[in-house]
Amino acid sequence: MSTPLSSTFPSSRAAVASAGAVFTAPERTGSTNADLLALAPGQPHGSVLATLDQTAGRGRLDRSWSAPAGETLAVSVLVRADLDERDRGWLPLVAGAAMRDAIAAELPADGAAPGPVVAVKWPNDVQVDGRKVCGILCQVAADGSVVVGAGVNLTIPADRLPTPTATSLAVAGARGSADELADRVLVAFHAGVLEAVVALVAGGSAAETVRSHVRSVCGTIGQRIRLELPDGTALEADATGIDDEGRITIRDRQGTSTGVAVGDITHLRYA
What is the Cα–Cα distance from 252 to 29, expressed in whole angstroms? Predict the structure, then answer.
């Protein structure tokens, strides 16, 4: 991990400090999640590690995450809270919703014409008009805290996007340099995650409001999907909702409904 830069993420540094947490911003690192997992035992809830140059990021199902230097944000947030097992399972979902909201705030919406559609593909990929702009990975640290990591395509131009189904904030119409976009997105994401965690800990109507918001921004609900399961099998089904355990609920061709906790989803209209 390289020496932290004092000039990057000015608003984010202030926001994290005001929450009583630690902000670290290496010039370059292999993985912000790996770094924060190692630091977690000595850092408070809400601490952040972020960079614009991550060289060895990983996504869900151990996929690599392409992150051109200076054009993508890699950020990890430490969550240390008294959550039961069910609510810990909601962390990836609420993180996806928080990042969705942070990204949506950066995209044009003038009221005269529909703006880009920003939604979450279950469980936590953020898409703009059906194209992936952000992936999220949650990992449990040795002390039981959770590191919530995210990678966001900021200013990658259309001709250099890593896949045909990817996009970036700049391609979607966001204004500003990579530094400016990263700082604003990080502030909003950090606040959204911490607010959601407070609500989950409180339980009751506060927690249900968070879950309802996750459902409302999940673009998978109502879609015909292809679902690849961990055992290698795949099926086509209709995604009907998210249950109280955070599982995607599906209805197969025979009309049987079930909840699925782990799987890789493709929205068939984009296949």
Answer: 43
